[in-house]
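Page 47, continued from p. 46.
Same chain as before, 251 aa.
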Amino acid sequence: MDSKGKNKNKAGLPTVASAKAGLPTVASAKAGYEYLLAYKVSVPLYDYTVLFCKRYRALLSSQRTYDQMIQAARSGNSNIPEGNQQASLEGYIKLTGVSHGSLEELLKDYLSFARQNKIPVWGKEETLRKVREIGEVWEIIKRNSTLPDHPNFPDLPDSLPEAVNFLVTLTNQAIYLQKRLKVSLEKKFVEGGGFRENLFLARRKALYEARMNNTPARNASHIEAGGRSRIVSLGGRKRIEHKNNERKSKP
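Result:
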């Protein structure tokens, strides 16, 4: 075994020794989205929604409502990771919007449940004062840069009014954080451009440099800014010059 192999097991995966040496391990590898509050708060929200729907299934208006609430909570949790893996920033923004929209629907379902079952919806301060579980959830979220596989969140409150207001508050918090994430991504897109846009600009730069160096472009087809000229073959440079000369000769 060579010196590089001493920190790997038979499967070729990093070992405890590699962790001590400061090398990345499989267990320590975390995706960027796992550090986001917008994602972390959606984890307990999804779990609590499943528990709530199972516990109070008889009080829900229909089987469809049961399915929709769980699906909305799942969407609010799963679209952030999926968006984060997109090559395009546009795709990330789109999926974050889907996630945010799903949580808005979930909030409406909780408020409808409260109205249909004559449960008062408390203000934020009253909920924080009466429902200790909210503070406990946030203590776990803030204590861990990324959530462990089993975060040990507190149980769903036994009292129905407390459970409803707990979930209304948690859903509102998730909506706020995901909206803020979307705004941040949109700002990043405006300032830095998207994946396709940056590829297009890089391609234009490569074509310009190729013409300056009298080197034919590798790609067989490219449309320059504003559709003013087109390279249709590897010998397209002459055609571009011809079009430019035609344009200059017009009165």
